[in-house]
């Protein structure tokens, strides 16, 4: 216990030394830096409002199976300088965004749909000209970015965007999800050369537990068409009132006005567990659209199910630390306990790397299941989120003969390789189907739903521990067997075209078959759904003539186009093609929809700013509820340890420690050295050196070099502190370039410009390195090392 307290005290002293660094906790701008989120630290410029987003309000109108959503964001500049606000926010993965307006005072400007590059150019020109403008871009199908330029001091600017989506029930339960915050995304790709749609990943975040700095409100008006049986909201406190058996109003409780740090989830059942099935028609000026929702039969008997092999891939990375990983543990226990004695299974854990429970799947015996549960229970969470290598490893495992393979992935989805994951899964459909569990209060639903879609499986989202048993049971029922296979759809006498999806995968739940399309000519004929169940052939006919086209079904044109765009985008992510990009762009422009290649831009014709350019502010995001600071990086953890533990254990460290200098790892990249016996007051003002990124040439091991450099930080800190008696401290990053020979001896070392006036410090550092032998792993004539040091 004594040693543990000493170690924690060292961490506290490190935190004190690092606190000055957080004043400028912005991402470093150097070529090999990876894109990554960072902790928000409010600027010391009192004239700049760092939190211009003041509120988000959502109005949802549900008619039958179609939801129409209006989102209003209010920006206000409470500083004394003009601003450009940048805000990254999520949306439903099914959202078809079809409109945007910007209101300044009494003036309302309707946004126009443009090609993405053209919209960005118009926006930048308006910003430079001093006009207020707003730009809405899609960074991912479920991640949008809003730019609002030239918000003058005292200005209130309202930006309203509209989208529609289709509500598809599962097990007779309808679910409306409004995502509220984008979780931090892990990426191992360099920031240099990052595309426009990837730069948003480097976004500021608040620390865990901090409430959103803006208010949140949502209202839902539900017209189900069939009497409503039950409404629940597991995510937020709401007030529900009924205006009739099929009409309901849901309002957010006032106590939840800062509840924008977790997805809003509303679920409802219809009387008798009915599902809204049938045919919807819309007649437009130039095109007619239809939507078919057909209920499949119930599941077949479990005795007809072949033996199955389950591969459980579990995310144990830093963003899963705490609440999400605890949910995963409970979920995996519940899932493992549903396996049958005839099943086989394996467990693969992944973060920056991956580890397998066994080299081949094991029988689902009580002993093997206990070992798996123990293995999962020991995990604590830490490191990066390398999902792709984990997927590749799982898919490469030998498959037992006669078993149907199912892969179950449990993750929060805080990665930025959605397209690559889809590619890998889709190319492996002949080997496995994929079920994805999203874990946490604000998961990356695009990744979770996309993996399940291309894997012909089903997405699951668990936002609370108490939901884990229910979702595990739903999974068990779902996988008992496909309820309908070999599905065909015939249109007898009904002239249709552009039907989506072109083929229908196996249906593995009590869930409707959904088909979009266009029709022409007379409203006549029959739609025939055919397939096979375990009990034999299945058939269902839907006559067309009795169905009347309704103006209220206008959303069908957006939903069809959005579905078509999603399919094209999935394919384009696998292998980009100019013709697909052109088709997506054309669809966006023709149907007034936001896409990866089209954006909305609204520009006020009035020039409102002259002279001083606006200061750009990236609106900080709250960490999703239950997500720890581990999802972002080391600085927040160090500060948290400092405030939580310094008062109780610092004195123990001073009395017990026999060491003068201590090395501590903070996050994945940074280490620091301080004098553990120094008085606490002196530690608060001490300057120190920490290790940043390094690159090495072939023949050298980055891991070995990093470990070696960590040990040199003690001497470097001595050199640095000695120089402070004569010279002011160095601020920021300094880069060293080293050449070593075959034995690791330094033959050349150079230091970049910032050390030019610190000759004493430079000599001290150089002399230290010249006495050392760097570790080498090959007999190459020489090796090259570039290493960054951060002075605070």
Quickly list its features.
792 residues, alpha+beta, Immunoglobulin-like, 8-stranded mixed beta sheet, 7-stranded mixed beta sheet, 14 helices, 39 strands, disordered N terminus
Biggest sheet strand order reads: 6-5-10-3-2-13-16-15
How large is the share of residues in beta strands?
Answer: 25-35%
Oligomer: single chain
Q: What kind of sheet is the major sheet?
A: 8 strands, mixed
Radius of gyration, rounded? Answer: 29 Å
The first-level CATH class of the largest domain is given as Mainly Beta
* CATH-derived topology of the largest domain: Immunoglobulin-like
Number of strands: 39
What CATH architecture of the largest domain do you see?
Answer: Sandwich
Number of domains: 4
Report the span from N to C terminus.
32 Å
Walk me through this protein's architecture.
The protein has 792 residues and is an alpha+beta fold. The chain has four domains: 2-24 and 625-791, no CATH class; 52-274 and 604-618, Immunoglobulin-like; 280-299 and 484-590, Immunoglobulin-like (Sandwich), CATH 2.60.40; 306-478, Rossmann fold, CATH 3.40.50. Helices cover 24% and strands 34% of the residues. It contains 14 helices and 39 strands. The strands form nine sheets. It has an eight-stranded mixed β-sheet. Strands 20, 21, 22, 23, 24, 25 and 26 form a seven-stranded mixed β-sheet that branches. The chain has a six-stranded mixed β-sheet with strand order 7-32-8-9-4-33. A hairpin with a 2-residue loop joins strand 5 and strand 6. Helix 1 (2-18) crosses helix 11 (634-656), helix 3 packs antiparallel against helix 4 (366-377) and helix 6 packs parallel to helix 7.
């Amino acid at each position: 216990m004594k040693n543990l307290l000493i170690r924690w005290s060292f961490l506290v002293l490190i935190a004190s030394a690092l606190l000055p660094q957080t004043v400028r906790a912005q991402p470093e701008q150097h070529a090999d830096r990876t894109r990554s989120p960072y902790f928000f630290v409010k600027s010391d410029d009192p004239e700049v409002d760092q939190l211009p987003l003041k509120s988000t309000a959502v109005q949802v109108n549900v008619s039958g199976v179609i939801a129409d959503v209006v989102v209003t964001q209010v920006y206000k500049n409470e500083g004394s300088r003009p601003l450009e606000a940048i805000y990254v926010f999520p949306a439903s993965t099914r959202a078809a965004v079809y409109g945007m307006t910007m209101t300044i005072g009494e003036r309302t400007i309707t946004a126009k749909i443009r090609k993405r590059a053209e919209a960005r150019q118009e926006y930048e020109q308006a910003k430079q000209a001093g006009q207020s403008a707003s730009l809405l871009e899609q960074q991912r199908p479920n991640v949008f970015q809003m730019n609002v330029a030239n918000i003058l001091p005292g200005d209130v600017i309202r930006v309203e965007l509209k989208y529609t989506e289709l509500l598809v029930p599962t097990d007779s339960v309808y679910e409306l999800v409004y995502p509220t915050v984008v979780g931090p995304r892990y990426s191992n790709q360099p920031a240099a050369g990052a595309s426009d749609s990837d730069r948003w990943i480097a976004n500021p975040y608040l620390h865990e537990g901090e409430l959103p700095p803006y208010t949140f409100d949502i209202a839902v008006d539900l017209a189900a068409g069939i009497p409503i049986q039950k409404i629940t909201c597991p995510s937020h406190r709401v007030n529900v009132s009924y205006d009739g058996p099929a009409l309901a109003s849901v309002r957010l409780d006032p106590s939840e006005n800062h509840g924008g740090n977790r997805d809003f989830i509303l679920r409802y059942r219809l009387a008798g567990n009915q599902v809204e099935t049938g045919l919807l028609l819309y007649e437009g000026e130039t095109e007619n659209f239809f939507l078919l929702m057909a209920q499949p039969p119930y599941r077949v008997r479990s005795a007809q199910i072949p033996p199955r092999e389950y591969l459980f891939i579990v995310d144990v990375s830093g963003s899963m630390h705490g609440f999400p990983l605890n949910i995963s543990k409970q979920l995996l226990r519940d899932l493992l306990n549903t396996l049958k004695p005839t099943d086989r299974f394996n467990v693969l854990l992944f973060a920056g790397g991956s580890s397998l429970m066994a080299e081949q799947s094991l029988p689902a015996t009580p002993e093997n299941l206990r070992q798996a549960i123990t293995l999962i229970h020991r995990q604590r969470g830490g490191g990066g989120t390398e999902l792709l290598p984990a997927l590749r490893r799982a898919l490469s495992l030998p498959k037992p003969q006669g078993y149907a393979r199912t892969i179950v992935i449990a993750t929060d989805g805080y990665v930025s390789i959605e397209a690559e994951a889809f590619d890998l899964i889709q190319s492996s459909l002949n080997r496995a189907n994929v079920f994805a569990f999203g874990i946490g209060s604000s998961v990356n639903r695009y990744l979770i739903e996309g993996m399940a879609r291309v894997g012909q499986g089903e997405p699951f989202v668990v936002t609370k521990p108490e939901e884990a048993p229910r979702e595990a049971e739903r999974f068990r029922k779902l996988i008992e067997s496909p309820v309908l296979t070999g599905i065909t759809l015939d249109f007898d006498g009904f002239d249709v075209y552009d039907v989506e999806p072109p083929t229908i995968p196996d249906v593995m739940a009590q869930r409707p078959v959904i088909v979009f399309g266009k029709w022409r000519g007379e409203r006549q004929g029959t739609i025939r759904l055919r397939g096979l169940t375990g009990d034999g052939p299945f058939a269902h006919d839907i006559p067309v003539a009795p169905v009347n086209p309704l103006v209220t079904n206008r959303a069908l044109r957006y939903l069809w186009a959005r579905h078509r765009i999603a399919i094209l985008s999935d394919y384009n992510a696998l292998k980009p093609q100019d013709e697909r990009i052109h088709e997506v762009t054309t669809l966006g422009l023709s149907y007034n929809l936001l896409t990866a290649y089209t954006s909305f831009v609204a520009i006020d014709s009035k020039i409102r700013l002259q002279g001083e350019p606006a200061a750009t502010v990236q609106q900080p995001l709250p960490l999703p509820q239950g997500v720890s600071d581990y999802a972002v990086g080391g600085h927040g953890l160090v500060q948290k340890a400092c405030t939580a533990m310094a008062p109780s254990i610092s004195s123990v460290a001073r009395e017990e420690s026999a060491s003068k200098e201590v090395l501590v790892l903070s996050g994945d990249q940074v280490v620091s050295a301080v004098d553990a016996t120094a008085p606490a007051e002196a530690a608060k003002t001490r300057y120190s050196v920490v290790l940043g990124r390094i690159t090495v040439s072939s023949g050298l091991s980055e891991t070995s070099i990093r470990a070696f450099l960590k040990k040199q930080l003690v001497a470097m800190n001595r050199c640095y502190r000695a120089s402070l008696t004569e010279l002011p401290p160095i601020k920021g990053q300094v880069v060293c370039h080293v050449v070593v020979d075959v034995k690791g001896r330094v033959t050349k070392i150079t230091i970049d410009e910032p050390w030019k006036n610190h000759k004493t410090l430079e000599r001290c550092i150089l002399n230290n390195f010249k006495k050392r032998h760097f570790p080498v792993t090959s007999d190459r004539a020489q090796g090259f090392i570039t290493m960054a040091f951060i002075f605070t």
